[in-house]
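Q: I'm teaching a short session on how sequence maps to structure, and I want students to see two examples side by side rather than one. Could you give me a first protein with its sequence written out and its structure tokens following it? Keep the formatting plain so it prints cleanly on a handout.
A: Of course. Example one:
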Amino acid sequence: MKNVINYYYNLYPDNIHQTDQGYFFIANDQRYFLTKYQGDINNIKNIYDMHIYMLNNNFYVHPIILNNQNQILTYINNDPYVLMLTIYYKNQININDIISFSSIQIPNNKLLNWGELWSTKNDYLEYQISMLGQNHPLIRESFSYYIGLGENAIQLVNSLKLNNIPLVYAHKRINSNDKQYDLYNPLNITVDFQIRDMAEYLKSLFFNNQDITKELNSYLNNKNLSKEEYLLFLARMIYPTYYYDLYEEIITNRKKDEEIKKITDKVDDYEKIIKQIYNYYKSFMITPQIEWLE
């Protein structure tokens, strides 16, 4: 790997530290990170352009370093890699980090349609389980319930007017175990509604066996959200990304079926969280009736 870095980037580190995420090294008194790019190759130019816009507008993300061929991606053993200049943020993220990151509204005419995206996802998963589910009995047992949650979230989103809700920079996926370093990785940044990151962070906290009562109450009581954003937050909390992500890892044999019990064993406790949010909303605003939450 040292020869690759020397050749493609004209950098000469003394030590390279390999982790599950990639390769960290220091050169010229600066810290770099070389990571395998896991996304759609066709999107990398858009990611690069977005990160340049963010940097030019004083919104910090890790700068992407082009190789000596002026390319974003460097292919190493046929795998695409991206090099970033990084600052080492070792602290674990918290609710304040997420609120701060999602606080800056951005100019964007893009109309996001979660309902359409989620419907397409549900249709794909239903087709996939019909083909592969016979080999995954624990998935088959739980699948209908979580598809039902997804449909419920879709119905709620489709009842809302989303065109006036501001957009912010958010993350494709966010985990309660992420470090502050991960927060500024441009490869994981997207444009979305501000409630996206908070909902996914709280779901991750919950399924990592942490009490989310304090963070949830703090967010709902102090965040200046519109009615549509409150309801989008509820829809995002209902929508089972946590199940779908683990499902994908199991169905592709990266994890064992038994892993799904970490989620399905907490069904009742998670439903209580959703009902708590729903009942709180009903105390101060007109809320669409959701039968199973009454």
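Q: Perfect. Now a second example for contrast.
A: Example two:
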Amino acid sequence: MKMSGASPSVVLAGVIAAVAVVSIVVLGTIAFPATPTTSQTTQKTSSTTSAQAPIEPPLYHEDCALLNSTGATTCSSSISKEGEIQVFNMTTWSPTDFQSTYAFHTQYFGVQVNQSTSLQYSIDSAHYQAGVQGYFNVGFLVYYVNQTGTPSQTLATYASSGKVLVNQTLVEEFTGAVRAPTPGLYILVFPPSERSAAGAIRLVIQDASVVQDGIRFSFGTPVIRNLYLNEPSQKTVQDGFEEWPVTVYSNTTTNVVLNATSINGGVWIAFDPASLSGVGPGGVNTTMFMAGAVSDSSNLSAGLFVNGFGSNGMRGETYLPIALGSPVSVLSGPGKFDNLQFAVYQNQTGEDTVGMVYSPPVGQSRLPLHVSVNVTGMLENGTVTKLPNWLQVSSQASSFYLDPNQPFYFFIRVNATAQAPLGTYTIVLNETVNAQVFSGFLLVTVQKPILL
């Protein structure tokens, strides 16, 4: 792995943000396998800046699987919380018995609201195109699960008889809101997609009346910056970094702590400052920084949720549509990077951008992290072996510094010869961060060239 060193970049001082991993609730059975791509839009976690944990109402979920071989439908119910990221599948099967286990799923999500409100939702999926429908049943004013935890009636029953509120197609990425003018049960339905295997879908549903209580936000026009890659050619990552002017208001004067959550992995958000004193009707200014995504004017995109927590118990929340860019791994201190995925054709060289951000928690040392990355070999049957002669992996950055809250990008290149066997291979990386050694992985999928 040929690499050249890099000197520390300019430190973006004063940005206060700790990074936590959002809890993921995995629903359904075996996910339909997906070929790794260089876009990395379906990573396993999403990024969140630190603040108090919100208390969310229950979110009711029903998964109805139609078995392709027999036509039989089986439904299962579960309960989680509004505001949490839900991960579920529209198509499932078992590799050991594909014909008898292949199933199409319909997913129902129920939200009980107790006053006039707005239900906000953000959806992310790589391939799902069957759409989403929203329903409201005015005659149903109690939770669909009784005190014993047993469903009293199914969400499917209410969806079939309720008033249609939403009928949205093309929801591979979608952010929106539906008005809930009266109390009752509101249901979002994801119908089965028999045209293709949709893979995993990520969903957030949030009741605005719970999280919008006295604190509000005003966003100015963002400053969009291109970031130079760490290489002699001085190539740039387009729109690699955004700075948003934000004003926070409160009905009564209070101190406010800010955080933000992206439904997608590989997105970093921070505030400078994240803790605001004396926020009142006149407002207090701060700046929001973002890498791994850029602002987007369309609701056919992913969603970014911004939250404010007042010391007097007041809360505020809003959401912004964003478009995913070059993903970033977020380090809160010495640790391993996110696993990387890469696809390359036989007899071709491919390259992708790798992004990283060091986001230290409040009170932690803000000295730069020294990072070095080297290829150890390829993992075969649990043993690390030398890279075969039909596969080469290289990068222009082997030793560099991560300044606090300053995104850093570099290229990684993979070459597969004409003799490279088709398949996915695990490349082992030796990652040293401030003299601490970690093992990371680069998943390389060799594909057959497409002949036009």
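Q: What should students look for in example two?
A: Point them to this: Residues 1-54, 139-151 have pLDDT under 50 and may be disordered. Also worth mentioning: The first helix runs from residue 98 to 101.
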